[in-house]
Amino acid sequence: MIQHHSLLTVALLFFAPLLVQGADDVDARIVVHGDQIIGKVNRLVFGFGTEVGRTAGFENGPNQLAFLTSGGGFWDPVAGAPVSGVLNKALAVKVGALRFTGDGSLANNLDWRETVGPIAERGDWKFGLDEYMELCRKLGAEPIITVSDYVLPAKELPALAAGLVEYLNAPATPNHPWAVKRKQWGHPEPYGVKWFELGNESDNGNFNVIPHRKYSPAQYVSYAKTTIAAMRAVDPTVKIGVVFSTVPVDGDLHSEWNKAILHEAAAAADFVIIHPYIPNTDFRSYYDASGAVKKQIPPADFVMQACMASDQQVEYFIHKYQEMIRHESGRDLPFGVTEYNMLLLGEQPETYRFSLGAALESADLVRIFLDPGSHVALANYWQFLNGYFGMVRSEMGKSDGGNIELHPAYYFFHLWAEHLGDRLVQTETSGPTATYEGWPLARVYPAIGSVVQEPHSLGTFDVNGRLDLSTVKAAHIPAALSPEGVLGFDLDHFTGKQYFSMGSFVSTSPRGTLSNYLLTFEGRYIPAPGTEFGSVGLGLVDLRGWDATQSGAGVIGVNSRNWEKYSCDLDALSTAPGVTLVGRFEPGDVTITGRFEVRNLKIEHVSKLTLPAYPLLTSISSISADKKTLHLIVFNKSAEKAISTTVSIAGFPATSARVWEVNGPSLASVADVKEVLSGGPVRLKDNLIQYSFPPHSMTAIDIK
Asked: What is the pTM of this model?
């Protein structure tokens, strides 16, 4: 799951009510070309993850044994077998890929060697690599394994990863000692694992593992290159992915992290890893039409429409990533979407992450991932079982899973599993659209009009000429701008958390302009001998102040002695008159002594990306291997309106059709979501179907 420590972006546009263009009286049309194959159905996009790892050594407490004993509920450690009830639910959604080891710190903190060997000698480790491989085989799922990027000192990690590949894939011969051990422990044949990812959201560091570690772009590249070489020396056929920066998918495409990977490591990699969590926020405030701050969770219709607008946005950025990858690396690397979901945290008043709207968003993302033009090699919905996001909830400790509860996403993925063929066929969809004013805090862009409005510069400020260091000096922190343009701060036993205003910059654009403010700089921190690095950095705040607007963005954690590039992007309110440059000193409980330096400081005012009004009706079609059944999947993302649609079938002699539907009371519903139609007949005449797709629904039509 995405966690943010060094990047804080907290801004919201005006709250806007749901604006829907189109309803029952607007005709929609779907044309299915049964004789035009566009690609093979990639079952690897129907992936999920396991939660495996140890939490001992974390900031937030002792080991959570379920991660060690049962993979979060998949495994019965007493029987030494998958939990039957959970296994049956997983089989019903036809899991295409299963990810080991889970998210965040679990991957960062896992040494695979602890998970193998005789059960009696593993301590609490009852669900390890061999049990995971058995689970994959029971499910018919392709394994994908996260290689830990932080569990040992960096120089030891390539050998650790090579040993992992040897254990999984090498023959049990004397020159492969780990494979010999595998055979001794009851697994003589190689597993033949193909898919590996080098770390999990590595640019965030090792999250809450103590002590904290965080690679610079150059350090991750070094780790990736040496680790890839070590793994390929054992098995040249493995497919290895490198981790892109894990700000939400709309983040800085051309970040220094991504550029370093594409320039230095892409030549050795097989795919790049992204985690699109959109909408993405745990901040429970929004702005009403008057610009006043409302200290509450935004209304359900506002939140749910953000989910509906997000699929188009993810698709847009996937294609922008493709352009950037080709430009920076000269290659056309596919994507490993090893986690995705919406990320709206909190329990009250609604658990939005379990809502019909969140499930509908993820199910429609699968449609995008299946599209050959998206170039997605595999995808893993986060998450299938238990944990914070699990769409299946079991009673851990019971061999059959006990009383198993199903959340809405399960029904959508089950519909996908039952109504998908072997080959994708050309499908054209036209229909009503909806506008959305955007929700910057949750990283959702405006969707207005009929064309993409790309960002463009509205002007660059003379930062050095407008610096005001008086508030910094008033706090007895020596600060000065050198003739060479280096801004320096000398910290002496500094503690606590303080922000200092260092200059105001007024926009010349008309009020109401949808825009961002981009701060870029090079920075370094030189700690005094025997002292620690401190959390220092810079940021931007709405010119009217944080207390008035709660709109700001920042970079902290400048923790390299060498010059590194940093940036942050403030999604400005449409009423923002400009921004204030802020110095951020946040050492917390640590006392820091050292020199913080900044150069090439730049603030650019940039118009905001605006996407077209998003389609309310989306669809995809496939044909069975025997070419006797067309499978049409249709999503209606309107909150209120059914959409009357003409479905035309070309190049396929249709004789009959039946319909299945997953739906519930509303987009915000958590309960009472289920399969409401199961194989009812559909009137078909002259290869035409007239059908009204209900609001907030996923519908499957099988055409014989």
From this structure: 0.86
